[in-house]
From TrEMBL:
The family this protein is said to belong to: Belongs to the peptidase M16 family.
PROSITE patterns according to UniProt: INSULINASE
Transmembrane intervals: none
Protein name as annotated: Insulinase family protein
Range of residues in the leader sequence: 1-21
Ranges where the Peptidase M16 N-terminal domain occurs: 33-179
Length: 451
């Protein structure tokens, strides 16, 4: 089957199947939005609570508080003591966890469908009645500090990425790592977490997503019962935090123990703000797939196999975010090749797209690869819930998901060439180099699992 015939087929597979996965929404009087997707293929349900508050909402001196509060959400309320939340989910035969990003914080449980009411009761309880015991807080901050040491400070690639981002952004809070700066973590107090919790953990700043073997009317009734009594609260005013224009290339180097050197390049690019009117973010998604989206993509074909400049080369771009976008290139040079040679090779691949439009087959393959990745999410209830929550958290209505796929399909070779020319210049570029240092004789043990 030709690639050009594959894309319409994939879009057809994305269409709703009657009785399989219909989506419904209701907003409670307190502002809480409840989105339910009925998927009856298995007697299980995913229940997620998304708060539209992440590390980008933090202030200097209190970085990392969003993530620390996420940990504290498992430390108990007057109705459920420390650790009881996890124990009750496990007793129900389910799993649970949470995650913090720059844009949002989310909590989830996947349990048998008849346990949904209990999960809602637990989540509604900690949405308003978190204990925040000072001793538990001090212990959890120490856990997060060790997590930072193990996952960032002792990981050269993570350290390089952190420094690159802090250099690429000068004003926008995306410059701050999600886990926070170590000095801020050392000085966080329970009052900082309490302020964060009181500011953002409110029903009118949350979305509940339920996907699984459920009836939407029954879910709405449960949400009204458990979340409905919670009071809406006045949210802090979110001020614009636009990043000033970059006026030239920024460069930095990081010295850290590592096996191989590494180069990372960050270009300032837009993200989706208007699903229908925007063009460039979709073209940038396609460009990323053309450069490094599969084994036959340009970086693997040219830089790794043909020229043997790199042992690995990747491109990364997320078109959905509350803040500004960055298109990342990342590569490690082959033995005998320098970082400067590899940087020149990465630039040459971009220049090739700027100078000559990509082929029809190359374009079709990139589209098929991207859209297939989206279609495969339908196999997982958790992935479906994640997709709904992530889109809503960054301001994109979940109902426009199909239109996002159609917009990817509509991208032309000329539009891919246009974005390569428009955004991939030295003026908006930040380059970071990892300079390997001798490895220590004994490495730290792996980071412990959260919660």
């Amino acid at each position: 089957m030709r690639q050009t015939r594959l894309i319409p087929l994939l879009l057809a597979l994305a269409a709703p199947v009657p009785g399989l996965a219909e989506t419904f929404e209701q907003q409670l009087p307190n502002g809480l939005r409840v989105i339910v997707k009925e998927d009856r293929r298995a007697p299980t349900v995913v229940h997620m609570v998304w708060y539209r508050a992440g590390s980008m909402d933090e202030t200097n001196g209190r970085t990392g508080v969003a993530h620390v509060l996420e940990h504290m959400m498992f430390k108990g309320t007057p109705n459920a003591g420390p650790g009881e939340f996890n124990r009750r989910v496990a007793a129900a035969g389910g799993r649970d966890n949470a995650f913090t990003s720059r844009d949002y914080t989310a909590y989830f449980q996947q349990v048998p469908e008849h346990k949904l009411a209990e999960m809602m009761q637990l989540e509604a309880d900690r949405m308003r009645h978190l204990t925040l015991d000072p001793a538990e807080f001090a212990q959890e901050v120490r856990v997060v500090m060790e997590e930072r040491r193990l996952r960032t400070e002792d990981q050269p690639q993570s350290l390089l990425f952190e420094q690159l981002t802090a250099t690429a952004f000068q004003a926008h809070p995306y410059r701050v790592p999600i886990i926070g700066w170590m000095n801020d973590l050392e000085n966080l107090a329970p009052a900082d977490a309490r302020r964060w919790y009181d500011n953002w953990y409110a029903p009118n700043n949350a979305t509940v997503v339920v996907v699984g073997d459920v009836d939407h009317q029954a879910v709405f009734a449960l949400a009204t019962q458990h979340y409905g009594p919670l009071q809406a609260r006045q949210l802090p005013v979110r001020k614009p935090q636009d990043e000033p224009p970059q006026l030239g290339t920024r460069r930095l180097s990081v010295k850290a123990p590592a096996d191989l050197p590494l180069v990372m390049m960050a270009y300032k690019v837009p993200v989706i703000r208007h699903v229908e009117q925007d063009v460039d973010p979709y073209a940038l998604e396609i460009l990323g797939a053309i450069l490094a989206g599969h084994d036959a993509a340009r970086f693997s074909t040219s830089l790794v196999r043909r020229q043997q400049l790199a042992v690995e080369a990747e491109a990364d771009y997320d078109s959905t975010a509350r803040g500004p976008g960055i298109f990342y290139l990342r590569a490690s040079p082959s033995e005998g090749k320098s970082v400067s040679e590899l940087e020149a090779g990465l630039r040459a691949e971009i220049a090739a797209v700027q100078e000559r439009a990509v082929s029809a087959d190359e374009l079709a393959r990139a589209k098929a690869q991207l859209i297939a990745g989206q279609i495969y999410k339908l196999d997982s209830m958790f992935a479906q819930a994640m997709e709904i929550g992530q889109l809503e958290a960054v301001g994109i209505p979940y109902a426009q998901k199909r239109r996002l796929l159609e917009k990817l399909q509509e991208v032309t070779a000329a539009q891919v060439q246009t974005v390569a020319r428009r955004y991939f210049s030295d003026q908006g570029l930040t380059v970071a180099e990892l300079v390997p240092q001798p490895l220590p004789s004994a490495a730290r043990s792996p980071a412990p699992a959260r919660h």
